[in-house]
Structures are given as C-alpha cells and as structure tokens.
Amino acid sequence: xxxxxxxxxxxxxxxxxxxxxxxxxxLALAALPLAFAGADIATAYGxxxxxxxxxxxxxxxxxxxxxxxxxxxxxAALAFRARLWNIGAEGQLYLGAMAAVAIGAxxxxxxxxxxxxxxxxxxxxxxxxxxxxxxxxxxxxxxxEVVTTLLLNFVILIFVQMMLEGPxxxxxxxxxxxxxxxxxQGMLPTLIDRMRVHAGLILALIAAGxxxxxxxxxxxxxxxxxxxxxxxxACHAGIRVNRTLIGVALIxxxxxxxxxxxxxxxxxxxxxxxxxxGFGYTGIVVAMLAGLSPVGVVIAxxxxxxxxxxxxxxxxxxxxxxxxxxxxxxxxxxxxxIGGFFARYRLVRAAKAPA
Amino acid sequence: xxxxxxxxxxxxxxxxxSVIANDAVSLDLHRGEVLALLGENGAGxxxxxxxxxxxxxxxxxxxDLYDAAGNAHxxxxxxxxxxLAAGIGMVHQHFALAENLTALDNIALGSEPLxxxxxxxxxxxxxxxxxxxxxxxxxxxxxxxxxxxxxxxQRVEILKALYRDARILVLDEPTxxxxxxEADSLFHSIGxxxxxxxxxxxxxxxxxxxxxFSHRIAVLRHGVKVGEMATAEADDRAIxxxxxxxxxxxxxxxxxxxxxxxxxxxxxxxxxxxARDRLQDVxxxxxxHEVLGIAGVSGxxxxxxxxxxxxxxxxxxxxxSVAGTPIAHPxxxxxxxxxxxRIPEDRHHDGIVGAMSVAENMVIERLDEPGIQTNGLLxxxxxxxxxxxxxxxxxxxGPGIDAAARLLSGGNIQKLILARVFEQDPNLILANQPxxxxxMGAAAEVGRRLLExxxxxxxxxxxxxxxxxxxxxxxxxxxxxxGHLTEVTTRDREQIGLAMTGEPA
Lengths: 355, 505
Prior knowledge:
Mean pLDDT of chain A: 89
Number of domains of chain B: 3
Helix content of chain A: over 70%
Structural class of chain B: alpha/beta
Distance between the termini of chain A: 15 Å
Strand content of chain A: under 5%
Distance between the termini of chain B: 33 Å
Strand content of chain B: 25-35%
Oligomer: heterodimer
Strand order of the largest sheet of chain B: 6-7-8-3-9-10
Low-confidence stretches of chain A: 351-355
C-alpha cells in the first residue's frame, strides 16, 4: 500500500524546480493537441520560438503582453500571501482602466507631467476601491471573498458596458461602444521607437521590486506573512489581522487597477469592453507559477506572455487554432498545482502491519 | 467477574516522539461488563482506545479477542477495518456523521457496498428498529442528522456501531456533551445492552457516573495503568488519589510575601455556547511574587479564561485590571502593552507562525519597538542578534535561527515562547497548560522559569489540568468547574480532586 505523508521541510531545490518543471511539461504537452491538429510539431515549436525571440519587434510584443500580467500577477501574489483570495483582478483592472479614461480623455487638460501621474494614481485608487468592498464584507461579516470578488467581476464588466453606452461613450466613435481616446499628453511613453512596449512595463518592474523588498524587509511584510501563514498566532501576538487584510486588499486592488491603466493609457488609448482577454484570471496562474514571490511573478509573466505571443504567431503561420496558448497556460497551472503537492508531500510505501 | 473474557489488551505501548503515551498497559474486558477508564487529560486513555480501534499502531504489545467458545484470536493491529470486523465499535467525542443524510442512512453508511445498485432499506430499517427496541436507544430515523440534538446524534453513533454487530463498544467521554438527564438515560440503555451480552468501555472524568454505572474501574496516569478495582469495592477518595498521583513536588518553592495585585478580574462573564467557552462571574486576583494555580478538568472554561486574559475574547460583563488600571478595550495588543506575557495552550496553533523563522517568531510581539524596526523597515541585524542571544540563554535547539519555527521540537517551540515572554519582564505571566506534551526535563525547565519570574516580582496565573504541577508551583489554588471559579484552601489532593468533579468538597 502507498501512503501520502507530508515532507517535514520541502527541499529548496524542489520548491524552485517545481514551477520550472511544470512550465516545461505544460509546454511539452502542447505537442498532443498540435499533433491532433495535424501540424508538424518541430516546425510548430520553431514558429512559437520565432514568434517571441525571432525579432526585436516580436520580443517587444511579448513584453507588452507581459506588462498587465505582471500587475495582475502581483495583485494575486500579495493577496494570496495573506490568504486573501482575490479572484477579482479582472474587475479591478477594468475599474482602473475606466478611471484612466474618465480623467485622461479630456476631463482635465493638463501637461503630461501632471496628467500622467494623475491617471496612474486615480487608476490605482479605483482598483483599490473595487477590492475594498469584498475586503470589508469579509472582515465585517465573514463573507467569502472568493465569491464576492469573482461575482463583482461580472458586475463591474456590465457597469463598464453601461458607461460605454452612456457617459463615457465617444461622440466621435461612430456609435461603437468605446470611450473617447486619452489625450496625447496623458499617454504613457513608449520605450522603443515604433514599438508598442510602453512605460507601464517599467512601472510593473518597479512595483515587483518594491513588493519583493517590502515583503521580506518591512514590518508591513512581516505582518502580512504572519497573517497569511497563521492568522490565529498573528492575532495572539497582537497583530491586527483585519487591518492587515484590508491593507493588503487595497494594495492588491491597486495593482490590478494599474494593469488597466497600462492597457488603456499605454497601449490602446481608449476603453472598450473587451480590453482584457482575461488578464485578471491569468494573473492568478502567474502568481501560482511564481510561488507567490514578486520576483517570480515577473519571470512567470514573461513565460506566460511568451506562450501567448508565440502561440499566436505560430497559429498564424501554421493555421492551427491559437487556443493552444490557453491550453498551455491552463496546463501549466495544473502542473504547478500537482507539482506543488509533490513538493510538500511524498509517497511512502507503507510498512505492512505485523499480524 | 465470572463472565467469560471477550477482550484482552496485552502490554500495549505507544510513544509519540519523546512522550510515552502508553507504557505496557494491559486490560481485560468480560462479556456484559461495563469498564470505566479513568484518568486525567493526557493520561493516555484515548491513545489506548485508538490502538484498540486500529487508528494507532502500537509500538509493542498485542490485542486478543475471544470467541464464544473462549478461544483467543489475535486482532490485526493498525487496521480499523479489522477492528470493525471483529465487532469493536467506537463512538468518539467528536461525532463522525454526515449532517445532510438521515439518521438511517448514516447508520447504514459504510456497512453496505459502495457500488451496490439497490439498497434494501426495509431490511436495514427493520434491523435498526429491533436494535432500538432492545436497547431503548431511540432516534428519529428519517430526519437529517443536521437537525438532531447532540444527544440524538450520539445515539445515532451508538446505533451505527450496534448495527454493525458490535460486541464491544468504546465510548470516549460520552456524557461530556449530554445534559444530566440524557446521561442517565444513556446509562440505562447501556445497562439494557450489557444484559444482552454487549461489553462496554467508557472513558470518563466524572467520578459520580463512574461509581454509579460501571462494574469495574481502571485508572491510567502518565500512560501507566496505576489501578484497577471492582466498582463495588471502590471509594471516590481512593480513585481521586490514584488519578492525580502522589508524587512529591520536584521544584522547591521558597516562601514569599505576595506584593501588590498585578491582575484583577472582577465578575467577568463570558456567555458561550458550551461549558468549554463559558465563564460565570469569575473574580480573581493575582499578586506580585505569587503563583495562582487554576485546577480543573479539561473543558470547564479554562480556554475561555485564558482567552479573556490574553485579550482574544472580550468579556460580555465584568472588568479586567492590570496593576490597578482597568483595560478599556481588551485585545491581544492591549494585553501585551499592559505587560502580560502569554504562554498559549496550543503552542503550534497560537504560539508560533510555523512557516516563519525562529528569529521572526521571537520578535513577533515587539514589531512596534524602535529597536526592532526603523521607519517601518525591519532591523534584521537586531532581530538576528536578539534570536542568537535568546536561543543561547533559553537553550532553544534546532536547525538555526533562520529555520522555520515548525521544524523545532515541541519542547524547543515552548522554549522559544518562554524566551519571547520572559525577556519582556512581564508583570503577569499567563501560563495555560505550559507543560502539556513536554518531557520531564522540558517540563521542569518551564516550572523553574515560572518560579524565577515569581521571585523577580511577576505574578503568575497557571492554568493546568495536571494537579501535581499546580500543587508544586502554586501559592494559592482555585478550581474551575463549569465556568465557575472557587478558591480551595486545602492542599489535599482528594479534596481538590472532588472539587474538580463539581462535588462539594
């Protein structure tokens, strides 16, 4: 008989190796659907690689795609570290984006030096506000934040659609449900000439760096970790658990809001209801793949973005469905979860009981 | 006892790490007999029964079952299925019922094949009804268990065991959750069933019911069977003495003049749902240079009392004063600031954050201190230095100060907590079951540190289920029973033991 028992201390190599291994296995498993689609597997992988590393443009596209994923990945990672299950980054992203166009699309005519910080701050605040509601419901009434944050996503999305048909609708938009464009001086500058990668990436990297530093070195990070790892002991030690949770919730929401700011003020210029192809949810995969470490989030976001961009380019070149990317992303999450299980537990052949 | 043997436990031993839970315990059970297993918390009663039921694998020893002809059959150890097949039924303190299923489904659950397509409900019902009639245990069979009272749920558990043709029934503190009337009716049913040939082992703290309803009594203490007698020949004083032991105090406690009051609880009331978390008009004072011991049987309000003093639970009525100043908003933070050092009962659950490092756990109560942080950033060198100093002076041994605290042994986790508490020079130390699960050496160390703090001028509130510990450390003793606190002036074990069971001493 085989029994499962917890490892006393998960080996460091295993905790670091599991996500990498999971990512590689997920990528390898993509061969199966590729084979079913009748594509030549070696060529397909080649195209995928070329789609990311084949040119400076391809690489810059990958970085552009990674930018919102770093933000939403950080949003999930920080919240999850405190055992606060924020599944609502998608909605908070839209709140951030909506705030950005509300302020940046002509409401205030200010120079870039004022307008850009204003857009960024208000976008973050809108995301934070979106997470404040579930956090208060949780700490006051014990409402499960998984349910409230998840359902708020749909509420927010419908609200966005309503606004795009109403107050935020672009009068010059030929009737399309989209917002007016953000003023030129409100747009985040691009990093490379004639390419789409924008200053949001720098912002995301700075946010990851700060998060990493604060988690390890600040009293705030100490409290967050203590609450997440053992709320009862944290409370016993005089740490105000609810206050800590609300603080984390606001920061998590703000980070997700920044993802939305980057997408409208860095990339698209205006808001539509299909701004995000699920960046909020993919951020959860990114965070899990990263083992909830902020620096890991950056690496995981680059990987997931590569898969998306590579698969897109491969599907165009080979005529197979680009849903392959979604498949690889989902499989890498499954592999991480299974791998994480084996990092924490080991299988033991149970000693036969003497009769 | 002339009835034939049905069960014999032979020299069962079980160790958990350095703790000996059972040391060569032998026990016989006869047909139709009610055997009461008595002992303090941690005496090893539940461990013994878990070995019988196959939940734990004994380190040594064996179990024999006897058939009707008197032939011995060894029981396969470590397999609950084997115990069930051999006719052993166990009803735990915490029930294992599916709340959304009816009582009847719960009774049948597990006895029928998992994948059978059709169930013979009529036959199941007929069998259960006949058992109910014979035993006098009744439960509404078609009601979901979630809507049954605690007493009814317990009867469902017992019916479940009987439905599986149990010949031996083990009840772990069956009356802990019952009203006195329910308890009496339970024992009458047990009487009816034993006349039918069932043998019963029940674990209890309550002398009254043990004397009234059992045939034989076995007493465990510190994992050893210290006595066994026919109930007819037993007297309560002898049993109380056996339960709590007569060991001489090990730590010398020098006499001291108590100083000013450091902690005063005035008519503190906590309305809880069970006796476990209820306090009734509790008034107590702890002075400097004084150890106040709270004795009592587990689950009589100790956790509630500790919760109030450590700030985890705000009292519904009454006031808490520390050094003469009332605490307006009692929470853990306020208590720490008022100079109360807390040693929690469950050191893994409340005492440490297992995933964080030893060094971090040593400063977790001091995060606001300027030495520990500067402008919100941790002073890592100061934290490490603190951990090195404390590890040395409190002899905390383990893989190092940067290792996760959960990797320490139980004794070293307790030393970590002691270090954290004592180095703050608290006015009052709340020590809740501070030596539970520790080996002799670590336990003695805890006692020595508590007395040292007393000498320095701290007051100590020691809550313990180990009467030996209280007698050796406490200057004054109070007994907690059902949320009520009463001072006892005697140091006589038997008198205190009686007070602990709620009888007037």
